[in-house]
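Need residues for this backbone.
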């Protein structure tokens, strides 16, 4: 076994009975709920890339230290400092000038795409909090596990961002208009709703994880991807439990009625002004009302424009949008209000949905790169499944 306990990601190779191995990547920043830093992104990308070419590795498992969170999102403190510096610099009108934001978003999206197109089974334990960048890691895994304590969400509207990390692609494939509703409201999904929404494949009890881990080393892993997928699925199904339907499924008809058709301002009004007796709907409405109007408009426009786009193209457009978010005021202001000063009183600009213009929204899609020079232009060339 190889292990580096001081690192924010710990890697192991576990031997199976027939001589093949399981690669384990464990997020180990428990004090920050395993928030994803650039260092963690680089460590994961390097090791997953190596394991993809290692013939002894039959499958990969993504997990996290502690029992509170798989990953609560991105480490936003360094991103905040980079935006403050960029906004005060002579190059503030050039979104590419924020080098840290560029490196963070572009490398994160490459890592997420690698997981989506990985040549071997990837088992992700999405236990506890799975938010933002954590969902970006889990979404592309071939075998996505949630537990009775999973809480899955894309809460970016509260910080002036939008559901990135391929969220545009993922949300657009959810039942009905649920994806749009979640993007606007940051409403969380429990295990049952994660299965219903298509962001998870198996619900297992967290207490069974140790037994599952032990059984993984006794599977007669094959050299064939298809065989290993089947064997892993069979093992996980033996531990599944059936959770009670969650609020997203129970309220899907209402969500569809609210979000189906109409302009964004009409949808926002329907969500925020209608009386909601159910706590899940009421909290969703309150989050949207307090969130960034620009974030909501961007999420809405991304789903409208990119509904039929490939995953690779979604990541390319999201990189442009994320760099524009870093250059504009709301992302820095949202992080300030929620994480830095913690006053929870963000001053959004524009301040309301009524004052947003189409020109402002279109600005999020103005790429600073020619298409051939886009930093993610090569995505999709190595695997045709998700183009």
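Answer:
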């Amino acid at each position: 076994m190889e292990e580096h306990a001081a690192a924010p990601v710990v890697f192991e190779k576990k031997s199976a009975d027939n001589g093949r191995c399981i690669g384990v990547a464990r997020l180990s920043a428990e004090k920050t709920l395993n928030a994803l830093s650039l260092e963690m992104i680089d460590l994961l990308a390097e090791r997953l890339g190596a394991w993809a070419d290692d013939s002894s590795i039959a499958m990969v498992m993504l997990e996290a230290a502690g029992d509170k969170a798989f990953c609560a999102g991105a480490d936003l403190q360094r991103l905040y400092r980079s935006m403050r510096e960029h906004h005060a610099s002579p190059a503030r009108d050039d979104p590419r000038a924020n080098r840290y934001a560029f490196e963070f978003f572009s490398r994160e999206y490459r890592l997420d795409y690698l997981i989506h197109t990985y040549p071997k089974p990837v088992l992700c334990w999405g236990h506890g909090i799975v938010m933002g960048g954590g969902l970006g890691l889990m979404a592309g895994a071939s075998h996505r596990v949630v537990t009775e304590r999973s809480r899955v969400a894309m809460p970016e509207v509260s910080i002036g961002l939008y559901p990135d990390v391929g969220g545009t692609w993922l949300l657009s494939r959810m039942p009905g208009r649920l994806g749009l509703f979640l993007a606007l409201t940051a409403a969380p999904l429990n295990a049952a709703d994660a299965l219903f929404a298509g962001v998870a494949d198996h619900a297992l009890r967290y207490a069974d994880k140790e037994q599952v881990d032990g059984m993984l080393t006794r599977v007669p892993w094959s050299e064939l991807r298809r065989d290993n997928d089947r064997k892993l699925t069979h093992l996980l199904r033996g531990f599944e439990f059936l959770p009670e339907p969650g609020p997203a499924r129970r309220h899907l008809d209402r969500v569809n009625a609210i979000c189906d058709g109409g302009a964004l301002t009409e949808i926002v009004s329907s969500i925020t002004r209608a009386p909601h007796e159910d706590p899940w709907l009421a909290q969703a409405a309150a989050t949207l009302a307090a969130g960034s109007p620009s974030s909501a408009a961007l999420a809405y426009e991304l789903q409208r424009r990119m509904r039929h786009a490939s995953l690779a193209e979604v990541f390319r457009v999201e990189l442009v949008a994320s760099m524009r978010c870093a250059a504009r005021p709301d992302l820095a202001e949202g992080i300030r209000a929620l994480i830095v000063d913690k006053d929870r009183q963000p001053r959004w600009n524009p301040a309301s949905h009524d004052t947003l213009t189409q020109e402002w929204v279109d600005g999020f899609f103005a790429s600073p790169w020619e298409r051939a020079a886009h930093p993610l232009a090569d995505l999709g060339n190595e695997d045709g499944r998700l183009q």
